[in-house]
Amino acid sequence: MENRNLTLLTDLYELTMMNGYLKEGYEDQVAVFDVFFRQHSLITYSLAAGLQQAAEYVKSLRFEKQDLEYLESLGLFNEAFLEYLRNFVFTGDIYAVPEGTVVFPGEPILTVKAPVMQAQLIETALLNIINHQTLIASKAAKICYAAGNGDSVMEFGLRRAQGPDAGIYGTRAAVIGGCGSTSNVLAGKMFGIKVSGTHAHSWVMNFPSELDAFRAYADTYPNAALLLCDTYDTLRSGVPNAIKVFDELRTKGLKPLGIRLDSGDLAYLSKAARKMLDAAGYKDAIICASGDLDEYSIRSLKSQGAAIDLWGVGTKLITGDELPALGGVYKLAAVEENGTLVPKIKLSDNAAKITNPGFKNILRIYDKNTGKAEADLIFLRGEKFDESKPLTVFHPVDTWKKTTFENYTVRELQVPVILGGKLVYNFPSVSEIREYANREKETFWDEYRRIDNPHIYKVDLSDKLYNLKTEMIRAIRG
């Protein structure tokens, strides 16, 4: 799965547009495209993810003999276009925010500057990769936030993911979002992620008794005895039998790990189980909970005082559950004419669908005293900001809403990834991205991260970009 040629992972209209560009003599025209997602009631913030796979895809683009034969069989393309594809190589630039960066609707999280035919080809796959991993990383971030800093979240949604790729790269994204481990062995191998797990109900059912099953598992894994206690009766047999096995381990000088609850009233059962474990002298034994959990159920369980230390989250994490698609788009922002980038804009009767023109970057504004992020500014490349002077930002629609920053510092979010077709970015490991993402999240006040009715983070346009956009709208509408 690591060495597949994904060049034909594209929509047909990308190829038909490329063919048209070649026919019209546009093959060398440079264009700028932005990847961003639009505002949605369920999107408060997101974590950018998928950049490494996106870059690897771009770097491995090649039309093989069988690809060209297939395209020729469609009867849509002439020999001149097939010859162009035969020699295809990406020679453009890609800029992006590092994986794990907190991002918001409307922000260009990835920008492509390349000959228009090249930029057009990669649209579909880039959106496929970035949309999916950013969605899952963002869901994981919310789930981990609900669990709290003291608890760990284990991802184990592979069996419910929409196919192998969704399971593998969903796991990668979930760890970027904050999960500490996964049940997915292949993802563990591919990305250096900690793998973990317990046993199934079938293990217990295959033995003459629950106690026999627990003893056999503890004998096989004496240093990792995490026993599933809800196969028959959690409090009357499951936990008491687990304690019996823990006593046997203790006489051998071994330390049991804990128990897992997968059904029932997890708040009540976990608190009752905690009392039983503590009374038996196992105050360090952890209680793991699973069973269709998400940020809402975890928050509810925490509010009820559930005695749960480790959360196993599967289906609702790996599928994105309530928001099955991020909705990221790929929009033209500029084209080069006579060596100069000319801004382009898409208009709509829906103001949210009007694009921001030009070759842009994102500026994050931090309070110097707290280190907290206060606002983002989308700006045109080439603009300069003097931190020694006050900086006023305003809402791009409700322009009367203004904020002035005086004691602040700034950071440009996009960095070069590919320049002139050459990879110039060193990709960190998944665990390093996770640590970076955790630091990123801590720069935002809880008010922006809370699950219900979060405070809306300011994402504004620089004066120059706002004026350009306004003038272009007036000119076109006029």
Produce a short descriptive summary.
The protein contains 17 helices and 21 strands. By secondary structure, the chain is of the alpha/beta class. The strands form 5 sheets. Strands 13-12-1-5-3-19-20 form a 7-stranded antiparallel β-sheet.
Describe it.
The protein is α/β, with parallel strands linked by helices and 478 residues long. It folds into two domains: 12-136 and 323-477, nicotinate phosphoribosyltransferase (Alpha-Beta Barrel); 140-318, Alpha-Beta Barrel (TIM Barrel), CATH 3.20.20. It is 38% helix and 20% strand. It has 17 helices and 21 strands. The protein has helices at residues 12-23, 51-59, 65-73, 79-86, 116-121, 123-147, 164-177, 185-191, 201-205, 210-220, 234-251, 266-279, 295-303, 315-318, 430-442, 446-449, 463-477; strands at 30-37, 46-47, 93-96, 102-103, 110-115, 152-155, 181-182, 226-228, 258-261, 286-289, 310-313, 328-337, 340-343, 360-367, 373-380, 391-394, 402-405, 408-412, 415-419, 422-423, 458-461. A seven-stranded antiparallel beta sheet has the order 13-12-1-5-3-19-20. Strands 7-6-11-10-9-8 form a six-stranded parallel beta sheet. It has a four-stranded mixed beta sheet with strand order 18-14-15-21. Helix 11 links the parallel strand 8 and strand 9. Helix 3 (65-73) runs antiparallel to helix 4 (79-86), helix 10 (210-220) packs parallel to helix 11 (234-251) and helix 11 packs parallel to helix 12. The mean pLDDT is 96.
